Amino acid sequence: MRPGRGANADLNPPAAVGGEQAGGTSRRTLLAALLSLGGCGFQPVYMPTASGNPGVAERELASVDVAVIADRPGQLLRQSLQKRMASDGGGQKRYDLRVSYWIAGEGVSVLTDNSATRLRLTGYANWVLVSSDPSQARLTAGSARAFDAINVLNNQFFAIDQQNDVVQQRIADQVAEQIATQLAIWFRQRVG
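RESULT FIELD:
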């Protein structure tokens, strides 16, 4: 501690000098950097039209019908995809999204008696977007992956089962976000 200063004096960041923040970046520099993004052609994927209507990506995502995905983890993924794409059954569906999805588990913390105390669950999805017309033409495809983990320490069965449900939902949400983002970028690039 320096003489003449309180005990908490070293915890306070240095005062801004000349309009600069504690990190050394001025507000003017930050504003100039943000404004220059528009000059390079950057446009947000979900950018609305000039009239305020939904943009290309949002409109096209809403016209995607998510096919049924097998098993409970598949149901969770389908619900997450429908939520992100606003595929609630309304409007004309011009695309079909077909997804194969599975979750694999692996013991990552193993005791000397070969019992696992932590499981890593990884969700894998391969998807294909096809036109919903009679030709069923394949338009694009991709994959997504996410992982999470469960601690398995002397828990009751129902507690582990409940943890598993929560982790499967988180993995489904992460995979759905990746798929929706990949599709939104594809729709945006196709138009623009």
